[in-house]
Design goal:
elongated; 0% helix
């Protein structure tokens, strides 16, 4: 999985699935879901890697996402959650 830099108190989990025919030539799709159970605004960064491509955000609730050359920056308000899909290829 990609490296995740995450503020203390945030929870995240990775899930994997096979890619569909319309998802180009990715070997699989990896989804990270992040949740902020705290009462404070928190930040997280998912660092880029040469074998991964950022595809889309899913189920975005009170969160903001910004794609940068370093990776994907995420800002989560209290009680926020978000899922992001990444395509994995060789």
């Amino acid at each position: 999985n990609l490296k995740v830099q995450i503020d203390e108190g945030l929870h995240y989990v990775w899930k994997h699935r096979s890619s569909n025919t319309y998802e180009l030539n990715y070997e699989e799709i990896r989804r990270v879901s992040i949740y902020n159970p705290t009462s404070y605004k928190k930040k997280s960064t998912i660092l880029s890697s040469k074998n991964y491509a950022f595809l889309k955000t899913v189920d975005e609730i009170n969160a903001q996402v910004k794609s940068t050359p370093i990776g994907v920056d995420i800002e989560l308000m209290p009680g926020a959650s978000i899922s992001l899909d990444f395509g994995y290829f060789e």
